[in-house]
Automatic annotation (TrEMBL):
Its cofactor is Fe cation; Zn(2+). Residues 54-145 form the Purple acid phosphatase N-terminal domain. Residues 1-24 form the signal peptide. Its EC number is 3.1.3.2. GO terms for molecular function: acid phosphatase activity; metal ion binding. Residues 379-440 form the Purple acid phosphatase C-terminal domain. Belongs to the metallophosphoesterase superfamily. Purple acid phosphatase family. The lineage of its organism: Eukaryota, Viridiplantae, Streptophyta, Embryophyta, Tracheophyta. This is Purple acid phosphatase. CDD domains: MPP_PAPs. Residues 156-353 form the Calcineurin-like phosphoesterase domain. The keyword Cell inner membrane does not apply. It catalyses: a phosphate monoester + H2O = an alcohol + phosphate. It comes from the Eukaryota.
């Protein structure tokens, strides 16, 4: 009997050891050269030549399933032409779609004419060209629509957060662009960071639009609102939150029965992507809460196995920067994420990189006071990828000791890739700027929570 106990104890200790090795969180010792993040000059990416030439071109998914594309651009001088012409790569038949035109004022800034045109009824998995402008200011671009939604459709997403427009941002962006694998970008908020300039200098929204055009004009970027999108500044008479962001970046929120562009969902290939707003009300009875409550049961994992949530302010983050800012939203929604077996939650905001093990903290109630995160195979992996390079610099003060939920953390700029292979497997990699694109600083095979809820190897 005693012998058996000893054996069991030994086995238990061995197991602990293995688990310990597996989850013994890594705080990378990589030390990035400390240099300030400085914004690139306003004219680093000058407007294209030609009178009234369309600029800041960007596309995003335009419906729930991926057969529509919203094309957005700015004409600086005149409203017209407000047309996008598109054609299939192997066809001469051209189609025209008219844009709706928005303008706005912010403090003493007046925007150009911001166009949004939704091209509908496209074919899946097809290359299209599109053309904007007229005369010698004509510009031509192309995109490829996603494959038809289905459970084993492979698809590769780039993941970028908190990009801003510093020289570091340029490095992150160029690094991502140099990776030929990325088919669309999950952008987890904080776009231009114009609000870091006096009176939120909105020319910085324009310069950002030109900076990222060489990717955003060619592949869909899926947008998530961050705190730098708020542009809430009553002291200068600007008291409408999200004004520049919502005028410039349109998303297909109505297609998912959302009543607000700040939260919505799309299906793309084998992924179901839910976008939440950390800076909109989410308590019980609020529109966002009511929407998410109805949304999660709609996800059909037989059609879209990969359930991914994007939001700006992380729930699991062991950095002292922005520590616990995401806590009240975690309390509101985490039990739903565990119940519905969300695969992955991607956040930004904290300017460093962190990946968690599958942990949850959902037992707590006001009488039992159980508030320690515990290992939970139904919990998502949480990624914090606010390390795009914005002007506020790196968040390099991690809390010690590293909590058990934290698998890997490092204060370096970079981006990530999510390579979905089939319904069971996806490969995640994180690429720091100071390495070549081919170098992977952190990686993890993710096993689908619905089809293959096994513990991931490390
Ligand atoms: C807006 O105001 C700022 C600061 O007062 C000033 O520097 C800038 O020239 C003004 N811009 C316009 C377009 O009036
Ligand atoms: C572009 O066309 C406009 C009028 O059509 C003309 O005034 C202008 O000189 C042209 N610019 C160039 C660079 O050819
Ligand atoms: C951005 O990066 C690219 C590629 O490294 C480089 O050619 C370009 O000069 C950079 N732009 C600025 C403004 O630094
Ligand atoms: C609080 O949690 C405990 C166990 O975790 C449970 O027995 C109890 O019913 C809960 N209280 C309420 C009010 O839900
Ligand atoms: C899914 O992809 C993984 C990784 O590429 C592979 O090992 C596995 O065999 C695939 N499963 C199926 C059913 O093809
Ligand atoms: Fe942020």
């Amino acid at each position: 009997m005693v012998g058996t106990m000893d054996l069991l104890t030994l086995l238990f200790l061995l197991l602990l050891n293995i688990v310990g090795i597996c989850n013994g969180g890594v705080t990378s010792r990589y030390v990035r050269k400390a240099e300030p993040s400085v914004d690139m000059p306003l004219d680093a990416f000058p407007p294209p030549p030609g009178f009234n030439a369309p600029e800041q071109v960007h596309i995003t998914q335009g419906d729930h399933d991926g057969r529509s594309v919203i094309v957005s651009w700015v004409t600086p001088d005149e409203k017209y032409p407000n047309v996008v012409t598109h054609w299939e790569a192997n066809s001469k038949r051209k189609h025209k779609t008219h844009s709706i035109i928005k303008t706005y004022r912010y403090f003493n800034y007046s925007s150009g004419y911001i166009h949004h045109a939704t091209i509908k009824r496209l074919k899946y998995d097809t290359k299209y060209f599109y053309q904007l402008g007229s005369g010698n200011a004509t510009r031509r671009f192309h995109f490829t629509t996603p494959p038809k939604v289905g459970p084993d459709v492979p698809y590769t997403f780039g993941i970028i957060g908190d990009l801003g427009q510093t020289y570091d941002s340029n490095q992150t962006f160029e690094h991502y662009v140099s990776n030929p694998e990325g088919q669309a970008v999950l952008f987890v908020g904080d776009l231009s960071c114009a609000d870091d300039h006096p009176q939120h200098d909105n020319r910085r929204w324009d310069s950002w639009g030109r900076f990222v055009e060489k990717s955003t004009a060619y592949q869909a970027w899926i947008w998530v609102p961050g705190n730098h999108e708020l542009d809430y500044a009553p002291e200068i008479g600007e008291n409408v939150p999200f004004k520049p962001y919502t005028h410039r970046y349109h998303v297909p929120y109505r297609a998912s029965q959302s009543t607000c562009p700040l939260w919505y969902s799309i299906k793309r290939a084998s992924a179901y992507i839910i976008v939440l707003s950390s800076y909109s009300a989410y308590g019980k009875y609020t529109p966002q809460y009511a929407w998410l409550e109805k949304e999660l049961p709609k996800v059909n994992r037989a059609e879209t196995p990969w359930l991914i949530v994007l939001l700006h302010s992380p729930w699991y983050n062991s950095n002292s920067y922005h520590y616990m800012e995401g806590e009240s939203m975690r309390v509101a929604f985490e039990s739903w994420f565990v119940q519905h077996k969300v695969d992955l939650v991607v956040a930004g905001h904290v300017h460093s990189y962190e990946r968690t093990n599958r942990f949850s903290d959902v037992q707590y109630n006001i009488t039992n006071r159980l508030s320690t995160p515990v290992k939970d195979p139904s919990a998502p992996v949480y990624l914090t990828i606010g390390d795009g390079g914005n002007i506020e610099g790196l968040a390099d003060r991690f809390t010690e000791p590293q909590p058990s939920y934290s698998a890997y953390r490092e204060a370096s700029f970079g981006h990530a890739m999510l390579d979905i292979k089939n319904r069971t497997h996806a490969h995640f990699t994180w690429h720091r700027n100071h390495d070549n694109e081919a170098v992977v600083a952190d990686s993890q095979w993710l096993f689908n929570r619905y089809w293959y809820p096994e513990e991931e190897h490390c």
